[in-house]
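Weekly modeling sync, notes
Attendees: S.R. (lead), two postdocs, one rotation student

Agenda item 3: backlog of single-chain predictions. S.R. asked that every request posted to the team notebook include the full sequence so nobody has to chase files. The rotation student volunteered to paste the first one in as an example of the format we agreed on. Action items at the bottom.

Example entry:
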Amino acid sequence: MAEINIRGQTLDIDVEAELRQFEWTRPTWNADKLIAASPFRFDRSPSFFVRLEPYANYPAGTWADSGYYDAEWSSGNLMKLLSFLRNETHEETEEYLLDTYGFLVSNTEIKLKPVKLRVQRSRQSLNDGLLAQYAEDYAYLESRGISVGVQRQAGVKYDAQNKAVVIPWRLADGRLANVKYRKTFGKAFWYERGAWPIRELVYGIEQAEKTTVLCEAEIDALSWRMAGYAAIAVGGASFNEFKRDVILQSKVDELLIATDNDKAGEKLREEIAYYLRGRVGLRNVYVDSRVKDANEALVKLGAESLRKSVSQSESVRCLYVKTRTFGLGKRT
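Predicted structure, as returned to the notebook:
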């Protein structure tokens, strides 16, 4: 267990339970440590570990990556790791842990924390001027099959100092809501601090059309655009009421659900159908089984393979209510 102080509350967190929610490559679960391939790099060797229990001066949740690309991601604490794994901002991870572990356990009793009423903060968009400091360097995503034109349309930039692609997240009306920074080596990323929570956003919603592909990652959405489709992204492997409402308030009338070819992707596909069945038309799109996601399909098999996946899509049969006009009908 890990004791972490968050916003004045000391939380006793079950580190192993939190980490077991995610898929690991070549994991070994010991009594006090998880050893696995690094989640921050394209790694197949067990070069990463995280402590499940405290050891000497190292609290539970402490982790290290022996093959790190960037010193910033060579080691860290549980908060930094969970924020990465959950694909959310530091503040969102804090709120999740407070909701889940907002009490203390003593040897004899459970002591509930004083109830604190939470007031929904007023969400503020970001100033587009913060993107002006970054370069128009499109080489990295070009190497992953995304043209300069598609990148420019999405407002992609490059942070030369941190060697990271800069990907703007916007509201439906075009206002800048958050920014994702993704390293060009490995998988490390972070978001703009104090910005609109990712859990309340859908990437690319400002460019959605009546028929739109919905996928997991921003680069997958850009890959679908390379194939000629409007595309948006969840930004991770989970869906919720916030993202549902963003889509329902947009011009989207039919969603082509195109998640990754793995267990997390299948879970996400089911969540999307659960939240949106009967509200918009839904079709399941499956990228070629030889690849994991849309970007890998674009790079290895070409844009035509994505178009073929759409042509072979399967309808999610359900009663369909067009909520914006209160129309009633059947989707087939």
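Discussion: group reviewed the output briefly. The chain has two domains: 2-112, 128-331.
Action items: rotation student to repeat for the remaining queue; S.R. to check formatting next week.
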